[in-house]
Amino acid sequence: MNKFAGALIIALGFMNLTAYGGVDIAPYYSIKSTKSVTPGKKSTETEKIRQREEFGIKASVKFWRLMAFQFSLGQSNLTTTEKVSEVVDEYDEIDFATELDLDTSNPDKDIRIKETQNVGKLSFTLDPSFSIFILRFKLGITARQRIIEKSETGLEDVTITEGPTYKPHSGFGFGVKLTRKMYWMAEYEFYHYKYPPDIEPFERELSVSFGVSI
Description:
Blueprint: H1 2-18, E1 23-39, E2 45-63, E3 67-83, H2 96-99, E4 110-126, E5 129-130, E6 133-152, E7 158-177, E8 182-191, E9 203-213
């Protein structure tokens, strides 16, 4: 997953050597959603909600019982087919018409866009526990690389790579201890892709993970 993934792996190894509270490793699955507004015919606009499924792995290095540094690496893929006139970047980061060299002579023509996202996160978490229950509050930085492929009938495919970009995220979670060494966790997270200057809009993410402490 390129340079930022390698940097996170190196940092994880370093923290593993220096921390003294234990290490948690957890594969995770998440569903992420964004809202975007796309232009339509006759000066109308349409609100779209896109969802992505992401798979990856998380590792946490604990210290002082309640605190931890959490590292995660994941990937998602999304393929959509839309009319040229409706194609817009949901994050408002890329000018698709220019970067993907869209043929706008026929606005009703269908094009296929596949986007792969490689995502690395570094978070600081607070994990107070009550009996078998765990609460989680987190704040950190997300590194995101986007690889976008456009397929259009009669034209050559175009691929662009954007990033990685670095933006803040925040979130909270709830978990249950299954044994002394195993737990289940659900987390609700916000990726603030407009920061700075704005906290909103943001991408929402709901993830579930099954962790093991070593």
